[in-house]
Amino acid sequence: MILSLTEQEQLDLYRFLAELGKAGPFDATKTGVARTWRLLPGTHRVEQYGIEKIVQEGFEKKWSNHVLGAGNNAGWKLLPARVNGDLPAEDITELTAVGRHVGLVHVFAGTHFEKQKAGNVTFKLPAGVKADAWIDGKPLGRANAFTAEVVAGKHRMVLRLDAKALPKALRLESDSVVFLNE
User: How far apart are CA 72 and CA 173, in angstroms?
Assistant: First the structure.
């Protein structure tokens, strides 16, 4: 399999493999970055039915083709991030594509996290990236960083991104929670 790669691709692969397990951008043992996302295309039809149905209901909710424009029983789609936690715009765009006659307004990105003890949690997006955010359906506003008080246990966070101005890579970090890979 490696023989089919160019010399540069082989060098890149060896470098990547050599970095796995070391402290740095490819350290998969760090739990302070979201690595499992659920994405939902925020079409003009979805948002007409109310933002509450998107941010308050679970990732299991299904939508009709008329509403989502992506086939019947379509809904949140699972998309893992890169090892370093980055979710490239190209991957987001590909997974949230909708039909020809449906306008994509926003992209909703959701993830689960767990907090061991009740208290404040702080989340940070990459520099220059702003999004609307909700934790368990409660609005946090539009910002680059979010702080909220949560009870101990599992929680659901949803971000709303402008579909026409996606960041080069989406990344959500927090030192106060453990992101769940589900």
Answer: 34
CA separation for the pair 172, 49 (Å, rounded): 27
Q: In a 10 Å sphere around its CB, with 0-12 CB exposed, 13-18 middle and 19+ buried, how is residue 26 labelled? A: middle
Query: What is the pLDDT at residue 28?
Result: 61
Give the per-residue pLDDT at 115: 96
Nearest to 55 by CA among 145, 148, 156, 144: 156
pLDDT given at position 66: 56
Compute the 3-state secondary structure of the chain and give helix, strand, coil in percent, each to the nearest 5.
Answer: 20, 40, 40
pLDDT at position 24 = 66
In which residue ranges of the chain is pLDDT below 50?
72
Q: Is the distance from CB of 83 to CB of 26 less than 8 angstroms?
A: yes
Stated pTM of the model: 0.81
* Domain residue extents for the chain: 34-180
| Cβ proximity of 176 and 122 under 8 Å | yes
Of 2.40.128, 2.60.120, 2.60.40, 1.10.357, the CATH number of 34-180 is: 2.60.120
